[in-house]
Design a protein that fits this description.
This protein has 366 residues and is of the alpha/beta class. The protein has ten helices and 14 strands. Strand 13 and strand 14 form a beta hairpin. 45% of the residues are buried.
Length: 366
Amino acid sequence: MDTAADTTAMRRAVTLAARGLGSTSPNPVVGCVVLDATGQTVGEGFHQRAGGPHAEIHALRAAGAKARGGTAYVTLEPCNHTGRTGPCAQALIEAGIARVVYAVGDPNPQATGGADTLRAAGITAERGLLGEEAEAVNAAWLTSVRLGRPHVTWKYAATLDGRIAAADATSRWITSAEARADVHRLRAEADAVVVGSGTARTDDPQLGVRGIDRAVQPLRVVVDTAATAVRPGARVLDGGAPTVVAVADDADARHLPDEAVLRLPRAADGPGLDLAALLAALHGRGVRSVLLEGGPTLAGAFVAAGLVDRVVGYLAPVLLGAGPAALADAGISTIAQALRLDVTETVSIGPDLRITAVPGPARKEI
């Protein structure tokens, strides 16, 4: 039976795992806490970067000899294979750990089996403690393994009545400086930031991360089907971070740098690109998490395709009454087709409200 001490230690491991968001891709984020035989914390660690030591190794190094006879709490089942680093299951055995509690089983067929290896060595291995919390922090990597595509977060900022701009198209600034700073945290946690041609044409965004120490700049992606929105001199081509401009197979993109052009098939049932092909191409480049920033047309296409895994909305206490809505046509024509969301978090950010939600199971009206 899990004790309060078990829960405290695993919750700390989940918190540690989150420190790796944005810097471990294409690897998972993992946290580990080691308690000695008396229940005292003697080691902590998290996976900091792809190719570097895993969370268990950092924690065991910190614990040293005090790990013998103790318990390791890990957010993901210890790996069982040798890649750029050795198998963590074997490291736990050699350290003399007596018990391993892990939150989520490893779905990667190349790395799974760590728990069985531990049990074969006489170590107690228990699964499931704070599994939902650990799944949430590692959603990007788990989605990539299970579905073979990046995890997609759609982020938008709007007024309380759902407008992203006024009737005259002015939009700066609907939300507060605090909310805009928080968006840079989201960017820093993502492998790629994606916008559409309308946003590129109207705002000429740079799409980089600012104000976050040691942030890894995400891949900047512009979905520009006709190759008309991104022109020479655009800020997204400034060299501050890698950039991809996704265009149709038949688009004239001679004005764009060859290395930035990604040619994709057109969507079978709409005017844009095949979004599944876009995500597949990004996945092939090591992208495991996508932050979809704009605008309403592209967001609607992603929703219609069933390719949004999380929604983060920044709502300002402002009313406009007219102007473009946050979401354009998403293929929903009746309330029975509405995409129902489960709210997972609401947080005040300055004067604004940040709401995080994920698609939930279909609900029937009572």
